[in-house]
Predict the structure.
Amino acid sequence: MKSSDCVFDLETVSVAFSASDGLHMVLKDIDFKVRQGDWIAIVGKNGSGKSTLTKVLTGLCPISRGTMHTRDQTLVQLVFQDPDAQIVGETVYEEICFGMENQCFDPVDMPKQVQNVLQQIGLNVQIDRPVSTLSGGQKQLLNIASCLAVHASVLIFDEATAMLSPMARGKILDVVHNLHQQGVTVIWVTQWMNELSYAQKVIVLEQGNIAFRGSCQDFFYPESSESGSSPCEQLGFSPPYAIQVARNLLRNGYSLVNLPTCTEELMQAVKASWQ
Ligand SMILES: Nc1ncnc2c1ncn2[C@@H]1O[C@H](COP(=O)(O)OP(=O)(O)OP(=O)(O)O)[C@@H](O)[C@H]1O
Ligand SMILES: [Mg+2]
């Protein structure tokens, strides 16, 4: 890997918090690299250290041990779970300009940049619209627009769809998929197994340790057809319905041209395998 391609390089990163009963290690010897253009999914149960890791990556949480190299921290932006958590502006325009003002962008360029980012993510609202009148999904789109306005090239989503309806969730994933195709690096933290299919790599955290890393297929499918369970189940998650169907087909002797990771891929695999 060329060093210019590397957005994050973590080596034995540990984070400890002090509590009344002593030090608690919440991240333990975390090693991984992220390259420009990657889509990495980070999965883990409540309290496994996902948010702490996102804060480490965005420079919001100091590392207790180990090292992290980042190419340019100003290009890294975080979208939180609660759509209201990072909104400070009264209107859509104010909200998008807030980050640009903080980073001393030229005010002359701001109106055009606001229009550009709203168009880029397909949020069709008036710029003087009060933020309080937007839906949760629209607020998350606005949060993404604010990240793009300051030229973020790495977006970290900390369970950004957890508080949204299924429709809004799908919309956010579509928008992020589109940005990824334009070259944006994505780190997608989730507990929803049906949000993993775009990831090139899945990392599972368990009590602050990396318990699994590998492709989506490695995560969802058992190592061999004889071994019943996959890392997904071994780590306490349920594979999405499409994966269960694919695995049932394979178990019953049907071959598939590839191992699907979502409903669309299952449909394609079935068509391609049996036409
Ligand atoms: N500032 C802090 N001080 C002390 N302990 C903390 C602090 N922040 C997080 N922790 C602890 O670190 C552990 C990991 O928390 P973290 O928020 O990273 O988990 P998470 O995987 O994001 O969980 P969730 O799915 O609930 O969001 C938890 O035990 C939490 O209580
Ligand atoms: Mg969290």
